[in-house]
Design brief:
45% of the residues lie in helices and 16% in strands. It is an alpha/beta fold. The chain is built from nine helices and nine strands.
Length: 269
């Protein structure tokens, strides 16, 4: 945050006056982003399935003087996503940026042993969820005449086989494809679309995977330059930057926030 030259004593954030929608906002990267976007001046509309956790995050933000609205819903349900976008318009006057972050993953089974239901759920949340969000966010951004910025959460699994399940790897590759295609379609209309290529991050999803397969923790961080997992706020910092006016010439990118694993991965990995 910086001092505003014309507003004595007022601290202005990178997203001052913006309205942001964040999915998967009840924990992990989504909750960290909710807090950070609000700290940087955005009014935030938070969406997740767990109402109690979501209300808790929204309550923290409002208690600190921020603006937040919680919308309980599932990104795989188009009507739920529509309610979140409508809330942004009705409560805060529009939608300027979004972090489409909700995700689902499993570990422990190879392709032929993976249940069809796991494949369907993974693709539904990670791919259809992004589709549902963008399909409803884009019209509002276009109608405003101000443009906007959308950030989709992908993964290092969106670039190569990381050891995560096959459905997860496939879904995160798809997120990068959607991101690039949408960036090309909407760039001339003022909407930037980017993706975060996220490395292993401390979250409920990762903690549960490590609980099931303890050896995964070292396997996750071994290829990285920085031998640790990310804090969720570190990922949120990149999302804030991409949504801000400091990234106005950045679109269609897959930005690594991965502790350096992209720098050391061999071609074809």
């Amino acid at each position: 945050m910086t001092e505003h030259g014309n507003d004595r004593g007022r601290v202005v954030g990178m997203l001052d006056g913006r309205v942001a929608m964040i999915t998967g906002a009840s924990s992990g990267i989504g909750a960290a982003a909710a807090r950070l976007f609000a700290e940087e001046g955005a009014a935030v509309v938070l969406m997740a399935r767990r109402g109690d956790r979501l209300e808790e995050v929204a309550g923290e933000i409002t208690a600190r003087g921020g603006q937040a609205a919680a919308v309980v819903g599932d990104v795989t349900v188009a009507e739920d996503v529509g309610r979140a976008v409508e809330t942004a318009v009705e409560r805060f006057g529009g939608l300027d940026c979004a972090l489409n972050n909700a995700g689902y993953a499993t570990v422990g089974t190879v392709l032929h042993e993976t249940e069809d239901e796991i494949y369907e759920r993974t693709m539904d949340v990670n791919v259809r969820g992004v589709w549902n969000c963008m399909k409803r966010q884009l019209p509002v951004m276009l109608e405003s005449g101000r443009g906007g910025s959308i950030v989709n959460t992908s993964s290092t699994a969106g670039r190569y086989a990381t050891g995560a399940s096959v459905p997860y790897v496939a879904s995160k590759h798809a997120v990068l494809g959607i991101t690039r295609a949408a960036a090309a379609e909407y760039g001339e209309r003022g909407v930037r679309v980017n993706a975060l290529v996220v490395g292993t991050t401390r979250s409920e999803m990762i903690d549960e995977a490590v609980r099931q397969v303890p050896a995964l923790e070292q396997a996750f961080i071994a290829p990285q330059i920085q031998k640790r997992m990310a804090d969720p706020r570190e990922i949120a910092e990149a999302a804030v930057w991409l949504c801000s006016d400091r990234a106005t010439f950045v679109t269609g990118t897959a930005m690594p926030v991965d502790g350096g694993i992209s720098a050391t991965a061999k071609p074809g990995d």
